[in-house]
Amino acid sequence: MENSEGVKIESTVVTEEPLISALDIALFVVIITVAYFWYFKRDKQSSSSEKKPYTIQPSSLSSIEQTSNSSFIKKLKSTGRSLVVFYGSQTGTAEEFAGRIAKEGARYKMKGMVADPEECDMADLVEMKEIQKSMAIFCIATYGEGDPTDNAMDFYEWLQNGDADLEGLNYAVFGLGNKTYEHYNEIAIYIDQRLEELGATRVHEIGLGDDDANIEDDFVSWKEKLWESVCSHYGIEETGEESNIRQYKLVDCSEVLPERIFSGEISRLKSYENQRFPFDVKNPYLSKIAVNRELHKSGDRSCMHIEFDIDGSKMRYDTGDHVAVYPKNSSELVEKIGELLNADLDTVFSLLNTDEESSKKHPFPCPCTYRTALTYYLDITSNPRTHIMKELIEYASDPKDQEKLKLMASSTPEGKKEFHDWILRDNRNIVHILEDLPSVKPDLDHLCELLPRLQCRYYSISSSPKVYPKSIHITAVLVNYTTPTNRVNKGVATNLLAQLKPTNDELPQPTIPIYIRRSQFRLPPKSQTPIIMIGPGTGLAPFRGFIQERDYARKEGREIGEMVLYFGCRKKDEDFIYENELQEYVANGTLTKLHLAFSRDQPEKIYVTHLLEQNADELWNIIGEKNGHLYVCGDARSMAKDVHNIIVKVVMEKGQMTNSQALNYVKKMEQQKRYSADVWS
């Protein structure tokens, strides 16, 4: 017999059998059983992960390895350690402090380890009491408007929502904050109090570091007293041994294939050649610079309007968000380090953690060349901290240089003063130190271990996605200044951005890695809600996006509320940025009022705060009588504080309240997101 395509089919005579055999039934039962267990096991795992969001594991590990890796208790027990130092860090400082504490633990017979709470099952804190003379120390930064850092968010929520019995846990907390912000060290203070509420024992009082002053001094002073409390609590004594053991060992990578060598990628090898969505802090998007133009009309200062092309990236942003920009150090400074240390910057190397149990195998992406490390991964322009001074001592061949480093590394009043004057006041970075102490010649791999990571820079987005869905705009002042030693220090990011000018020909356009950071700085949900915006200088940036969005709504025929903008700069004819745009928004009715303060266009200086005081009736009318929103963007150290004081005064006078009632009113505005600040120091 053949089918229609001419293929021969054999015809066979068979005896008649039932349509469903016993074997068919057995197979059917097996399939149903497997499907049942697969479905419900998956559902159970999903539910479990929702209940314990603080446990995050690398996707490449097996389930057995994941359980093992998340348990810091098992690591402590298996390696004979009794000290664990957790860090909540956004810029790397808290992580650095945690490493220094863990390293010093050896001097007090407490072998330590550093741990990222995001990678740990923090519920295991209840088991710390099983380890004799154990202790957990927390170095916690407060970020944004009193928020935990990204890697401490799940731990913070676990403390808030849980009721674990932490009796037997010994702990101490050091907070990293900035006094110019309202929520100074709020997260560290909460964690310190909450741990005690859950039954843990505070071994040493909380330390509060102020980054607006001298956070290094705050940390060192607290750390010294910490160890005194530890010795008293556990009945132990300092061994007196200085621990200068390297955390990372040098690995020769001269034989590594070129395609396996990092060249500036943040996390994934070749990630800039093979871009993958979603884009975030570890996987930035390589954006083209579409526009880079000068905003200042004259003068010796520069302010840039820059547009990042995100067309095709699938990236989405909201008005008020921030964009993170990954900079790189100037080749001039990098080459200078190579010259000072007589090093071949093109040598391929790797730094491998000597602690095999650590989840952090390398301090930055390895292997790479020294040139790559110094260009993309290491901060070579900030003021080094005292522990770097201490580590450099052994590399000084001149006794005078040795003594100077020893003095600055010490915690004596004389040492602190010398460090403050020579490093902080004179604004020396590692290059300047190597220039001014010529006998200091550290091994380059050790220097790479000591220097902190180069951090991305955040900018308020100055555009609305409603108007510019395919690009992100920023407004940035070029940072250049002369130090007391007559050196010119240049802002890492802004000087790089200044060089990235798009071309009009067919040459490849300049690019830079970016990602979007979400913000709570938002327009009211209803477009008819009136708002007041206070943004002198580049503080105007997010309000440019706000105005664009309201203008878009108006053109769509929607009702929009009053928009009042307070803007200030030095001189109208010099640094009045976006002048034509703002005047156009006033003319078409989108911007109800534009209050301008040009501080140097008349003998007496006039600032936006002066105009606010003059317009107290308008201010109260919007925030008091019409339930409007108020926004502040710019300098946190003085301007934002002055604005806050003026608001309280206006609420007192126009709302006929006492000082206490006015403060509570303003506090309630903040809680209702009717008073928002996007400030920096």
Automatic annotation (TrEMBL):
Cellular compartments per GO CC: cytosol; endoplasmic reticulum membrane
Family matches, as InterPro entries: CysJ-like_FAD-binding, FAD-bd_FR_type, Flavdoxin-like, Flavodoxin/NO_synth, Flavoprot_Pyr_Nucl_cyt_Rdtase, Flavoprotein-like_sf, FNR_nucleotide-bd, NADPH_Cyt_P450_Rdtase_alpha
Compartments it resides in: Endoplasmic reticulum membrane
Record EC number: 1.6.2.4
One Pfam entry name: NAD_binding_1
Catalytic activity: 2 oxidized [cytochrome P450] + NADPH = 2 reduced [cytochrome P450] + NADP(+) + H(+)
Transmembrane segments: 20-39
FAD-binding FR-type domain mapped to chain residues: 282-524
Ranges of residues in domain Flavodoxin-like: 83-227
Keyword Oxidoreductase: yes
Membrane topology of the entry: Single-pass membrane protein
Keyword field: Endoplasmic reticulum, FAD, Flavoprotein, FMN, Membrane, NADP, Oxidoreductase, Transmembrane, Transmembrane helix
GO biological process: response to hormone
SUPFAM superfamilies attached to this UniProt entry: Ferredoxin reductase-like, C-terminal NADP-linked domain, Flavoproteins, Riboflavin synthase domain-like
Family under the similarity heading: In the N-terminal section; belongs to the flavodoxin family. In the C-terminal section; belongs to the flavoprotein pyridine nucleotide cytochrome reductase family.
PANTHER family, sorted: NADPH--CYTOCHROME P450 REDUCTASE (PTHR19384:SF17), NITRIC OXIDE SYNTHASE-RELATED (PTHR19384)
Protein name as catalogued: NADPH--cytochrome P450 reductase
